[in-house]
Amino acid sequence: MFLVAFFAAVPLYVLGDTILNPIEVAFFNLLSRLSALGIELVRTLFSHLFWFIGLHGPHTVNAFLGKRFLLEQVRPNLTWGEFNRLFVNLGGSGVGLALWAAFLWKARAGTMRTLARLATPFVFFNIDELLIYGGVVFNRILFVPFVLLPLADVLLGYAFVQAVPIEFSAVRVPWITPVFVNAYLKTGGDLRLVAFQLGLVIFNALVYGRYVERFFRTQRPSEYGQQLSQGLHIKGQLLSEVDVRAYAAQRQVIDAAQHLDRLIPRLREENLTLYYQPIVALSGAQRPYFEALLRYRSRGKVSGPTFLGLLEKAGLAPIVDVWVARRLRQDLERFQACGLEPKIGLNLHPDTLANPKAVKTIAETLKGLDVTVEILERSFLYGERAEEGAATLRQHGLKLAIDDYGTGYSNLEVLVRHEIAELKIDRTLTQALTETRGYLAVKKTVELCHELGIRVVAEGVETQAQLEKARALGVDFAQGFHFAPALPLDEACAFFRRVPGGSKNGGQVL
Question: Homologous superfamily of 270-498 in CATH?
């Protein structure tokens, strides 16, 4: 399929507008002559054709045709977008609820039945990617009902709307609202629409059932292989692992959406702040500095950003990192107003380092400031994008530090290839300093870093014994609860003044 798509795309790329412009003009001229119902039928047809070849149907159609049509009204308080959710996408594209019912009804055993069972929690929330990608894409037998049944539902739904005097409310019903519930809410409790939805689902399930049965008749040879595999306890185990991963992935879709709906409204400027954890010199007269850490304020309490993992999965980490950089610049002005100019360490998520626009914004925001950007080793798995991001930071005068060293890949190539100013030993190795193996591992790391001109910071120092071991090994700096937790800016200023010129008492600050 890749080669087919590739060789089909090459002439389009070479000839470009010569081919595409006339087609585009002719297509939109055709649309302009169609009624609203005709446009809806065209959108539905192409949406399901795209789904069948593995592309997200609605997103792809919207990319070509835009979304303005979906906001036009079929009836007062009923847009075409809402019409789709009430009459066509029942359980998701392709009438997912009917497809799910047909699989459970006709699939006697095997992957399809497992697929239907795993999809059960999702189709009721109109999420049927598991069914589509697992059972429909490039399935020539299911092609006909998958494409034609939604078109039939458009016509039936339009006829129902025109014939039955139902009043629709102005309530906006989210797309994830279950079938039947959405009809009840949109009509203010009119059960006629609920009954019509049920009739559509039954009609579609009956049609799907005939095709699913035909599909399974063609799969009998593979069923023998599946039975043998199950008997030998080989294939069944592999299938169960695949099913578990598929279930987990779909579960995350719903969980992430629900949590983000609750989380995003709470993430406002006034609810976020930066705290500063001291990083103390263990020898010499070097001044202490700080690591900026994001904190969340709620109901008078300040806590760690437990939401970061969710934002990371949603691809929103760069937005948070840009905000942190801007707040850091403001806070450094407050430090300066107090007569202090501390150096600051700032964490950068791997996704952010690989995002050229985000990196450029952060670099320009922090340009001219004494800031060290702390990055994880896995950031460089992004390849050239991460390399370019690191180069951009250095070009703007920012130093780089490797954070949490010793728990990830601990790749020496990173230390050799990149201009690293600082290496932060992870707290797990710091806690192992009192053990022989941990002590030797940190000792060799410190020796190598010093030979490369890289200063070393021990993270998570919590006891006097860990501190003494770190100092004996020549570790340059340390941070942890033994000195201080992360502090609000005013307390960080007080800490800085309390230890002028660095840790002159050998690191025993608190």
Answer: EAL domain (3.20.20.450)
